[in-house]
Specification:
homodimer; about 200 residues; mainly alpha; Arc Repressor Mutant, subunit A; Tetracycline Repressor, domain 2; 9 helices; elongated; Tet_transcr_reg_TetR-rel_C_sf (chains A, B); DNA-binding transcription factor activity (chains A, B); transcription cis-regulatory region binding (chains A, B)
Amino acid sequence: MPNPDPSRRSEKSRRAVLTAAFELVQEVPYAQLTIEGIAGRAGVGKQTIYRWWPSKAAILFDAFLLLSRSDDGATPELPDTGDLRRDLAAVLHATVAELTDPRTDAPMRALAVEIAQDPALARTYHERLDGPLRDAKKRRLRSAQDAGHLARDVDLDVAVDLIWGPLLNRWLQHGGPLTDDYADATLDAALSGLRPR
Amino acid sequence: MPNPDPSRRSEKSRRAVLTAAFELVQEVPYAQLTIEGIAGRAGVGKQTIYRWWPSKAAILFDAFLLLSRSDDGATPELPDTGDLRRDLAAVLHATVAELTDPRTDAPMRALAVEIAQDPALARTYHERLDGPLRDAKKRRLRSAQDAGHLARDVDLDVAVDLIWGPLLNRWLQHGGPLTDDYADATLDAALSGLRPR
């Protein structure tokens, strides 16, 4: 008897649905993404999907959650070479690359649009998906504080928002070109401030 | 004969549609806002609406455009008391008040969600609605440069993004409480920078 274990079969279907949703959101405008479409691509019945997820937003969220888990269960870490500016620039450039690649821009934008309209999903997102990443950013900034490269009295959540907020806002609102130069300019301004030096 | 002028009657219908859309978006989730609903509230036929606007996003945009025009046709200006930090804090606190008031949060969020999904609408938005406001912000910052309160070598677009980006991103993504204290903290960090002083 092939595949005798129902829980293993379930897990296979679950992964097929998440993979299908993540692929489809790169191919069709998110507003046109349907449960039918996901079910068809995944090769499962619509009822199977409805049994597990209340909405396409919930599927998309779980797809991100699946992707974000590294295989060895390691927590995310930012590079720490001792050069804060260089480490943050490397991370921001990687983010620029993701946000300008249609394969990652489309699903991330779809999730961001859902989060903007759904405070409950936003809470889950900030707890389970963005939370571990924000903690990693704050650990890197705390290490910079210990090394004397970051002001001691800076609130680390404010620092994270100042470093990442302008880039994310420009991306989500199509406010201008998303380039390494722009990331560098906002990073330098965030680190050094706007007042005369 | 009452109301003999067709163009005046058109203008009255146009304003009724824009007002209806702006009111309805405060009452129902944006995803449930329909052209039918707007037509019913405005007391015009659906066909009248479709003749003038291709989508509910286009109606919402025009409603904002109508609201943004001051009656005397004046261009927007930021306060300029000579105290940059105080002037910017006053503007940011007014923004916090708008973004936390359901009557303004809901339509602004609906527009932001459309802009996130529609690069063409985003271009029009940044040119016609946000553009004049951004110019006003940059005029205030230029005046601060002239007064020696802002670094000469700072790109003013980067400065605007650093001052407003974190707040707007936290708002749109439900990233945390939107308070005057948060606005002050990000403003102070933007002006002074994150490096040790």
